[in-house]
Recover the amino acids of this structure.
C-alpha cells in the first residue's frame, strides 16, 4: 500500500470522524495566552463548528487518530470487516496539525477519537500522549475533548481527564439488547463502569480543589456520551428514558444523538434505510424540555404516539395538545413553571414576561413581541385583552397550530 502523506491522512480521518456528534465545547474553564505565556485560548471567535451555551462559535479540529479497528460493530463504517481506506496518525502528527491549524486561526481546539488498534490500553496511551504533549510540551491552552475507551486501564482514563477539558464515553445504543446484537464485543456494564469511575474522579477532584488550591483541574467541562438512533428497534420513549437515567446517574453535560446512516457492505441485521433526520431533531428537543423546561421524562414520553415522537410538530406542542386541560395559561398570573409549558414561549420570553408583568398588565401585542409565531400561542394563553374561548378545545387545533411546510426560493431577496 502506498504511503500516505499528512494531507491524505487528514482527508480520510477527518471524514471518518464526522459520524461523532458529541463535539460541543460547553462548560470548559477559561484559559488564554495573555502575558506571552502558552499558546491558544478557550475564548474568542473563529471558523466555527460548535456552539457554546452563551452563543459563541467554537471551531474544533475533529479527527480520528486512526480509522483502523479490531472491533467489528455492525453499525460502524470503520469496523474491522469494512472495506474502507485506512489511515493512521502518530501522536506527534496530531500535535503538529493542531498547532499549525491554531496558528492559522482555523481552530480553537481539538476533538480527538480513534478506532481501537492493538489493544484498548495501547490506543488510550496514544490519545493521552497527544493531549499531554500539547499541554506540557507546547503549553497549549485551547479546548481539548478526548474520546475515552471503556476497556482501558483506569489510570489511563484518569490521565485523559487531567489533560482534556471534556471526556466522553459512548454508550453506543439505547438498549442492552441492541448493544449485544450490533456490537457483541462491547459490554454495557463495562461502559457504565467506566462512566461511574469518571464521575467519581470528577467529583473527587472538585472536592479537592475546594480544599487545596494546588489540586489539579480534572475534566472541567465534564463528561458526555452519544447514542445511535435508528440502528436497533428502540423507540423514542426508550431513548428518552435511557438518556434521563444517564443524566441522573453520571451527571453528564450532554447526551448526543446520531441518526443511523447506512454504510457500505452493511450487515443484514441493520435497517436498509436511515431514520428521518427530523427524528434526531425531535429527540434533541425532548432533551431540552427535560434540562431547561422542567418536564419529567414520563411527561415527554406522554407526548409521543405509541412511543414515537411526532415528526410534524415539536414535543412541547404535542404535550400541550394532549393535555389541553392545563390550558389556557394566564400570562399575567401563571407561575414560571406553567409559562414554560406554553408552546412558543422560550426561557428568555418567560423571563421577560415575569419581569414586565410586575409593572403592568400584559396584552396580546406585548406577547407578540416576544415570540416568532403568535398564532401558535393564542390557543394556550390568556392576556389582558385576549381569551381563546372555545379555540383551545377545537378538534382541528393541531392543524391550525402546526407549522406550515413552505418551499424556500433559492434566489429569494
Amino acid at each position: 500500500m502506498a504511503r500516505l502523506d499528512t494531507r491524505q491522512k487528514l482527508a480520510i480521518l477527518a471524514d471518518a470522524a464526522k459520524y461523532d456528534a458529541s463535539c460541543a465545547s460547553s462548560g470548559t474553564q477559561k484559559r488564554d495566552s495573555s502575558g506571552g505565556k502558552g499558546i491558544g485560548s478557550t475564548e474568542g471567535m473563529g471558523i466555527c463548528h460548535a456552539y457554546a451555551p452563551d452563543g459563541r462559535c467554537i471551531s474544533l479540529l475533529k479527527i480520528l487518530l486512526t480509522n483502523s479497528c479490531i472491533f467489528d460493530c455492525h453499525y460502524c463504517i470503520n469496523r474491522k470487516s469494512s472495506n474502507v481506506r485506512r489511515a493512521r496518525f502518530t501522536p506527534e502528527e496530531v500535535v503538529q496539525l493542531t498547532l499549525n491549524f491554531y496558528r492559522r486561526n482555523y481552530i480553537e481546539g481539538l476533538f480527538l477519537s480513534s478506532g481501537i488498534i492493538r489493544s484498548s490500553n495501547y490506543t488510550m496511551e496514544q490519545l493521552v500522549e497527544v493531549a499531554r504533549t500539547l499541554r506540557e510540551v507546547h503549553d497549549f491552552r485551547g479546548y481539548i475533548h478526548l474520546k475515552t475507551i471503556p476497556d482501558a486501564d483506569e489510570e489511563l482514563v484518569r490521565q485523559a481527564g487531567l489533560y482534556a477539558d471534556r471526556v466522553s464515553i459512548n454508550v453506543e445504543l439505547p438498549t442492552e439488547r441492541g448493544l449485544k446484537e450490533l456490537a457483541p464485543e462491547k459490554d454495557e456494564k463495562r461502559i457504565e463502569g467506566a462512566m461511574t469511575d469518571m464521575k467519581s474522579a470528577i467529583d473527587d477532584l472538585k472536592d479537592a480543589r475546594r480544599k487545596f488550591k494546588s489540586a489539579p483541574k480534572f475534566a472541567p467541562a465534564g463528561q458526555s456520551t452519544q447514542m445511535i438512533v435508528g440502528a436497533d428497534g428502540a423507540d423514542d420513549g426508550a431513548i428518552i428514558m435511557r438518556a434521563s437515567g444517564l443524566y441522573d446517574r453520571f451527571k453528564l453535560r450532554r447526551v448526543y444523538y446520531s441518526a443511523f446512516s447506512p454504510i457500505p457492505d452493511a450487515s443484514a441485521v441493520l435497517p436498509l434505510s436511515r431514520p428521518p433526520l427530523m427524528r434526531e431533531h425531535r429527540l434533541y428537543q425532548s432533551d431540552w424540555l427535560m434540562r431547561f423546561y422542567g418536564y419529567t421524562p414520563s411527561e415527554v414520553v406522554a407526548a409521543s404516539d405509541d412511543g414515537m415522537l411526532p415528526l410534524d410538530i415539536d414535543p412541547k406542542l404535542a404535550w400541550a395538545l394532549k393535555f389541553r386541560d392545563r390550558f389556557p395559561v394566564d400570562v399575567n398570573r401563571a407561575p414560571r413553571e406553567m409559562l414554560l409549558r406554553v408552546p412558543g414561549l422560550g426561557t428568555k420570553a418567560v423571563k421577560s414576561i415575569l419581569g414586565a408583568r410586575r409593572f403592568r398588565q400584559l396584552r396580546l401585542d406585548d406577547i407578540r413581541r416576544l415570540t416568532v409565531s403568535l398564532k401558535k400561542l393564542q390557543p394556550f394563553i390568556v392576556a389582558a385583552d385576549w381569551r381563546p374561548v372555545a379555540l383551545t378545545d377545537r378538534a382541528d387545533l393541531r392543524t391550525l397550530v402546526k407549522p406550515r411546510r413552505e418551499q424556500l426560493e433559492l434566489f429569494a431577496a
The chain has two domains: 6-223, 323-401. DSSP finds 15 helices and ten strands in the chain. The mean pLDDT is 87. The first strand starts at residue 50 and ends at 51.
